[in-house]
């Protein structure tokens, strides 16, 4: 296999794989824009036309793109921007200001960033402004100066739009939406958010200035469509340097998606999430297992990838506990049963554990109390138990009220798989009352 | 050669060396290597590695990145008292001091991203850059935008960059309410007994055979494995107690092959170590000293720091009274402290809420007059002037043996709680010859 040379190129198998890895990783790990976004054609058209109206005809506008995490909001916007910039007159004319609620956490920072992105830092110098509105007006006015008398359109994009609603008085939102309504400067405001209830976050005066245009990205994909897009995502493009290799790869991909066990895995995935981002994670994990010794994605690779994606983190942590720590968890489970989920303290857990030692245990011997305390503290460090709010740190730690952050089934399942769990411990866990 | 050791883009010898340095973590190393791909290929934007203490999270990631000479910045969130330090370290590692010096005094994430993009424009990544954030759970306590920002740092800076977060805590406890960029989750399981044996047996002692050391480790694990699986802690215990294990060999009492004799010598010693060194009740130095003059080891509890508190005579009684007031129901005071109380059957005053012992629920607050009443009835000799009693109470509060609880609804009368354990109060009572158990309504 390793010596095989493709006819139409001089790439070795290793080089081909390396190329394929590079390409696909850009797709899965680097939000590389698809040539054509699939499944969102109408949204794409809508947004493009809206922004063209601002960029070409100087109309102001505002719009929200709403959709769950990883649904492709950023991707959609970037695709549209890319296409928009391909129009010659737009590219020369339009000004782009891209803000993100994660970064511009208050309006002062936001204003600084707007100034910077408009290249107006020198114009502003150390002028002092009376209000935010005044400052923003100055910036927009400054854009007019220069050779043309008409203003250049400005496109504001606000990723994580909902976070801007937490800024004091929503000043930035108010002012941006306000100028998007008064026709002095052509301005488009595009907000991106994953909160469906985003309008409820807006103050009345802000809300009334918003156009109420929303573009929703809620995937209506069915399973066959999902399968097709999995295959699409794994395909190598026609311009791949080694056509022989890419044909083989693509054929392999097709076969993979027809495999029954793969279909089952993908259906499970589809039922829990159909966004592209989580699909990319799954495919990336499978892709990472491809090597010269294993030059295509096999069904087992996808199965393993899915196992990693869906593995139960809490169970993983529980399996790593010491037997003593596990016993404490069981004692707490019993306390939860007895007191119907009321919080408890270390002393009660210890008492429950001691009852077990006296009555039922043959495999576990007694531990000094401080050793048990240490085990208890470790559980707290792992946040498997959490102190209740309101109990002061001043009270002795044995009596501090805590809550178990695991439920009955999680404990019982973890116990089933706990490596070399002593039988008496298992029986104790299964018994009805302590 | 095995497929495990071959990853395109990396030197095979280097990989082999790497694997030798990371025993028992082969699966994790190769999963990571596979995810990373060739140095210039993209890796997933954020990876979250979780696993308990000392499962090799930091060790594996750092050794990997260092040995393979990949561009990386490691920041421990413990050291980041302010986010500025975090930003500074990352910029400094990747772009040198000119970049980190450009940070303003109190930098925001926005400043960091701006500078990163600016300098990265000058030196774009030729290989994936890695940022490792150790003890990542602490990010949750910093600015709310920090964690979601770092998770999608690649998107924000548009560089070939991967952020690796390391934590003991599961990812579910990190996710903000409105969601975020979900990292790829990798679990580092605890080492099992055989693996611990293999890892610990690597630190052999120069003057003894590796078989001997290995058998010693086996005994050590037999004692400690059920309570502790932390390599670091076990390694420390192993080193500390090895001289004791070798004692019979030094004196000629036993030979290396007298496994049973050696076991008999060390096992009780290790069990004792569990109570003290393991709990950090005595320092390692103290423990070593104690090992050398074993003979005068009295009660190991005598070492516990608490027992060394020297209190004035009346303070001891005050503390005892406070303990009784905290743990006995107030209605039983008559029974214990009046010489001629009527016959009250125990069950009569077992009200429902008192069924659970205070030794389970913790001490109850009590008013000053109740404390004094009990105090005057238990202290046998002449009673000190009240003024001095008050000052002693306040010094007990200062010593944190008593704690003062002030309730908003009770403006004038302060209440107190006793803040010491039963063991402690028994020791105190013994020094004044007071049999406290006789006066306790219950004890577990
Ligand atoms: N229709 C699509 N066709 C191809 N790829 C897509 C499509 N939709 C989304 N993707 C891909 O899915 C990934 C996630 O998309 P994106 O980052 O735009 O999500 P988002 O909605 O902005 O999420 P968040 O709310 O977290 O910001 C990207 O890599 C994107 O390229
Ligand atoms: Mg986005």
UniProtKB/TrEMBL annotation, chain A:
SUPFAM superfamilies: P-loop containing nucleoside triphosphate hydrolases (SSF52540). It holds the Pfam family ORC4_C. It is found in: Nucleus. Residues 59-238 form the AAA+ ATPase domain. Keywords: ATP-binding, DNA replication, DNA-binding, Nucleotide-binding, Nucleus. GO terms for molecular function: ATP binding; DNA replication origin binding. GO terms for cellular component: cytoplasm; nuclear origin of replication recognition complex. The keyword DNA-binding applies. InterPro entries: AAA+_ATPase, AAA_16, ORC4, ORC4_C, P-loop_NTPase. Coiled coil: none annotated. The keyword Transmembrane does not apply. GO terms for biological process: DNA replication initiation. Belongs to the ORC4 family. Component of the origin recognition complex (ORC) that binds origins of replication. Component of ORC, a complex composed of at least 6 subunits: ORC1, ORC2, ORC3, ORC4, ORC5 and ORC6. ORC is regulated in a cell-cycle dependent manner. It is sequentially assembled at the exit from anaphase of mitosis and disassembled as cells enter S phase. Interacts with DBF4. Interacts with POLQ. This is Origin recognition complex subunit 4.
From TrEMBL, chain B:
This is Origin recognition complex subunit 5. GO terms for cellular component: nuclear origin of replication recognition complex. Component of ORC, a complex composed of at least 6 subunits: ORC1, ORC2, ORC3, ORC4, ORC5 and ORC6. ORC is regulated in a cell-cycle dependent manner. It is sequentially assembled at the exit from anaphase of mitosis and disassembled as cells enter S phase. Residues 311-440 form the Origin recognition complex subunit 5 C-terminal domain. It comes from Synaphobranchus kaupii (Kaup's arrowtooth eel). Residues 21-164 form the Orc1-like AAA ATPase domain. Belongs to the ORC5 family. Its main location: nucleus. It is found in: Nucleus. The lineage of its organism: Eukaryota, Metazoa, Chordata, Craniata, Vertebrata. It holds the Pfam family AAA_16. Component of the origin recognition complex (ORC) that binds origins of replication. DNA-binding is ATP-dependent. The specific DNA sequences that define origins of replication have not been identified yet. ORC is required to assemble the pre-replication complex necessary to initiate DNA replication.
